[in-house]
UniProtKB/TrEMBL annotation:
Coiled coil, from the record: none
InterPro entries: Bac_transglu_N (IPR013589), Papain-like_cys_pep_sf (IPR038765), Transglutaminase-like (IPR002931)
Pfam families: Bact_transglu_N, Transglut_core
Gene3D superfamilies recorded: 3.10.620.30
Domain Transglutaminase-like, chain residue ranges per copy: 171-237
Domain of life: Bacteria
Record-given protein name: Transglutaminase family protein
Length: 317
């Protein structure tokens, strides 16, 4: 039953004054029987009014506006989270009965989006791997672990080779990426096998010196296992996500879970800086600021005709 204190700072710096900035945040952590949020505070430049709602997936989505001119926007989220270990699947139900469960979910609106997928450059090779290893002869739990192991062992963890807009074809061609890329790939593979899979955004907390993804927002997968529920799989570290993973949001893909995104009026170049600090005590250490860029400054000519999706956020590491 570990307790984690998380401070997540997102800072935008603009080369000129901007105004009428509208932002959306998905920084409210999930509260359930395995994750108790003892406290959560948000501090935002100019102290704007924050409105919130629940989305289709049950995430808390918050929005705010800053009308007055400004050249910096800082959002600081501070969380005290107590996590509990989730028991693993017993995996005792008959094999055929488990796989038949998925046929019943194909037209269930709660699962349809988590089964949907499109062909891409690696589809043939993935299908060949599934068939050659006869994964459908395993229980869904064991098959999901095998796919997680495949991603971990066949793709290199290299920061900076992809960005927030990289797609499956890019990742497959590079055979490398970060947690966001590993997650996107494993979701595709699970769905091709017929296992519902969803994207999870959150944090991986320090517990192993070899853990990848610390010091930034993290991403992993949840696969739906019959007679059990959603099982967290972290392909970046080839582990089952449990009490050291703090969940922020779930969705079909990254865009459903983007921590911060928004639009503004003005013609300015934008720099984004992110810092995530995680500790086991309330005294937060002073850590480095982690810059996320896409090669050069992004020059936006924003207006409210643009979608909120169009402004890039930090890639999950």
């Amino acid at each position: 039953m570990p307790t984690f204190y998380i401070k997540h700072t997102t800072e935008y710096n603009y080369s000129d004054l901007v105004y009428d900035a509208a932002s959306q945040m998905m920084l409210h952590p999930i509260q359930d029987e395995y994750q108790n949020i003892a406290s959560h505070t948000l501090s935002i430049t100019n102290n704007p009014n924050i409105e919130s709602r629940k989305d289709f997936f049950g995430n808390r989505v918050a929005t705010f506006m800053i009308i007055e001119p400004h050249n910096q926007l800082a959002i600081i989220s501070e969380i005290e989270a107590v996590t509990f270990e989730k028991p693993l699947p017993e995996d005792q139900a008959p094999l055929a009965q488990q796989w038949d469960t998925y046929h019943q979910l194909q037209y269930n609106p709660l699962f349809m989006d988590f089964l949907s997928h499109k062909p891409f450059d690696g589809s043939f090779e993935i299908s060949a791997f599934i068939n050659s290893n006869n994964l459908r002869s395993l229980t869904p739990y064991r098959a999901a672990l095998a796919l997680c192991d495949y991603v971990y062992n066949n793709f290199k963890y290299i920061q900076g080779v992809t960005d927030v807009d990289s797609n499956l074809n890019d990742i497959w061609s590079l055979k490398a990426g970060v947690c966001q890329d590993f997650t996107i790939l494993l979701i595709q593979m699970l769905r091709m096998l017929g296992i519902p899979a969803r994207y999870v955004s959150g944090y991986i907390c320090p517990h192993n010196e070899n853990s990848r993804g610390e010091g930034a927002t993290h991403a992993w997968v949840e696969a739906y296992i019959p007679f059990y529920g959603w099982l967290g799989l972290d392909p970046t570290n080839n582990i089952i996500a449990n009490q050291y993973h703090v969940r922020l949001a779930v969705g079909r893909h990254f865009k459903d879970c983007t921590p911060v995104k928004g639009v503004y009026t003005g013609q300015a170049e934008e720099d984004l800086f992110v810092k995530v600090e995680i500790n086991n005590s309330k005294t937060m250490p002073s850590g480095p600021v982690f810059p996320y860029s896409h090669g050069e400054h992004v020059h936006h000519r924003n207006s409210y005709r643009q979608s909120l999706q169009n402004i890039p956020n930090q890639q999950q590491q």
